[in-house]
Amino acid sequence: MPRDLRAGRATHWQIMGQGARPGLAIHCSLGHAGSWVALGRDLSDLLTITAFDLPGHGLSASWDGAGEIQAASTAIAAAFLDGPADIIGHSFGATVALRLAVEHPQLVRSLSLYEPVFFAVALADRPDLRAGHEAEMATFRAGMEAGDMEMAARGFLSVWGDGEGLDAMPPAIRDRIAAQMPLIVAAAAALYEDAGGMLASGALTRIETPVLLMEGARSPAIIAAINDALAARLPQASRARIDGAGHMGPITHPRTVADAIRGFLSPARAARRNPEPG
Question: Closest by alpha carbon to 77, among 61, 56, 55?
């Protein structure tokens, strides 16, 4: 599991699978490269996946606040690629994947995105969702304003976690997640204010690569609105709904998410792997 400079930042990564097609996986906020192990195993015959730790995550260097974190993450992602690859992203990582396709289209063969949290695009189309979204994030924001990182983490995970909640975690993990709450604030400019200009510039409508937009059946309502808004702009978008899953579907339901990605990337092979009953 190497660690070296990528786009000027100390970055850790790991490689999984032996497939003929190169892949790059970008994890969610509070996650790490190892979050992809189960899904990578299920796609190991199709893809060789490089998964890296985002700034401030896993074994990569801490986020130093220099610049804008989505831009920095996109530059790191681009530094791993020397040609077209199948890009897989989850949550914040899926927004990085989108920005990679905007800024470096020559490096993106396909996008498989699980719940990209690009709130700006949903709220542009559905401003009626703003009050409800702000209400569900109220505990997180109150914790940040009070400097109570544990309160902020508890509020954040109540919306975007796997259902277990902060208090069910071992103390070391609970402390780590609480310490990472400033990373959520750091991402807000890109996710809510379109710091990357993907929405304001109309760049999404110029992404020519095929895109799979996935969402869990049990996810917050704003997720479906995000994917609706993206699908309305992306010329080659398709959709998949993961039954029983919430926002952490790639971790809680890796086989089902992997099967959706397999069907998107290689429909004929997916049909042979999962034949119709009869």
Answer: 55
CB atoms under 10 Å from CB of 261, counted, come to: 26
Q: Say how far apart CA 241 and CA 104 lie, in whole Å.
A: 28
Query: Which residue did the predictor score with more confidence, 91 or 267?
Result: 91
What is the tens place of the pLDDT at every residue in 177-229? Answer: 999 999 999 999 999 999 999 999 999 999 999 999 999 999 999 999 999 99
- Encoded tokens for 212: 């799979």
Q: Please state, in angstroms and as integers, the Cα–Cα distance from residue 131 to each residue in 127, 128, 138, following that order.
A: 8, 7, 10
Q: Is there a contact between 69 and 92 (Cβ–Cβ < 8 Å)?
A: no
Give the tens place of pLDDT for each residue, 71-120: 999 999 999 999 999 999 999 999 999 999 999 999 999 999 999 999 99
Contact 129, 225 (CB under 8 A): yes
Q: Are 249 and 149 in contact (CB under 8 A)?
A: no
